[in-house]
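Q: I'm building a small set of examples for a reading group on sequence design. Run inverse folding on the following structure and report the sequence directly after it, with nothing in between.
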């Protein structure tokens, strides 16, 4: 059964690009337009195997979303990868402290993204 990756980004174009790269590699994808929507999808769907998430989004940013997801014991092992234009060490540190497992800066390399997703999902 294909692993499902939730792509959370306020840019529809980025969601589409990331989802296309993942689908070509055999993953299923789900999409959310901001952290609040992403959090709700993780809470309601136990079949999500990984989250790829932007930092700067309306309603709830990616760092807040990671903190809220990781605050729940059932999500401790869920890998979350940040995909963002931000490269500030303080933000990367906060994301890792919140529970994110990696940080890729946009524009992203699709091959690198897919390899990272396969590594993190054990697929």
């Amino acid at each position: 059964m294909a692993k499902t990756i939730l792509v959370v980004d306020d840019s529809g174009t980025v969601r589409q690009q990331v989802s296309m790269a993942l689908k070509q590699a055999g993953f299923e994808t789900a999409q959310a337009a901001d952290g609040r929507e992403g959090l709700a999808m993780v809470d309601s769907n136990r079949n999500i195997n990984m989250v790829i998430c932007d930092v700067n989004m309306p309603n709830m940013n990616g760092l807040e979303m990671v903190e809220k997801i990781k605050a729940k014991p059932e999500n401790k092992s869920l890998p979350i990868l940040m995909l963002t234009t931000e490269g500030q060490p303080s933000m990367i540190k906060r994301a890792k402290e919140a529970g994110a497992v990696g940080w890729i800066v946009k524009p992203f390399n699709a091959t690198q993204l897919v390899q990272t997703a396969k590594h993190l999902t054990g697929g």
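The beta strands are 4-8, 28-32, 48-53, 80-84, 102-105.
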